[in-house]
Amino acid sequence: MEIDLIVSISHKEHYCIEIRSGVISDFSSLTHKAALSADIPGARFIVLSQNKTALSSRNITIYPWQEGLKKILPTK
Fold first, then answer.
1. What pLDDT is attached to residue 76?
2. Dihedral sign from CA coordinates of 31, 52, 21, 47
3. Partner of 54 at 20 to 30 A CA spacing, among 18, 22, 27, 41?
4. Contacts of 12 (CB under 8 A, 6+ apart)
5. What's the CA gap between 67 and 7, in Å, rounded?
6. How many structural domains does the chain have?
7. pTM of the entire structure?
8. Given this model, what pLDDT does residue 74 score?
9. Is the pLDDT of residue 19 over 70?
10. Band of the pLDDT at 9, cuts 50, 70, 90?
11. Contact present, 40 and 16 (Cβ < 8 Å)
12. What is residue 10's predicted lDDT score, i.e. its pLDDT?
């Protein structure tokens, strides 16, 4: 089990990111990966996908990949 990408915004803010090439309608395949992010203090587990709209369930948020990148990457 692995997480595709970890982005650290600050020493207290981290994103554990799963990247999927398709549309996701079911959270069941993501729960074990989300559990891995719990080992990193301050981490949020998100999924970048081809979904048209964001979905959220407990500690998992699925974003359309463009929207997800805007959420996690700081802009100036």
1. 63
2. negative
3. 41
4. 41, 42
5. 16
6. 1
7. 0.88
8. 67
9. yes
10. confident
11. yes
12. 85
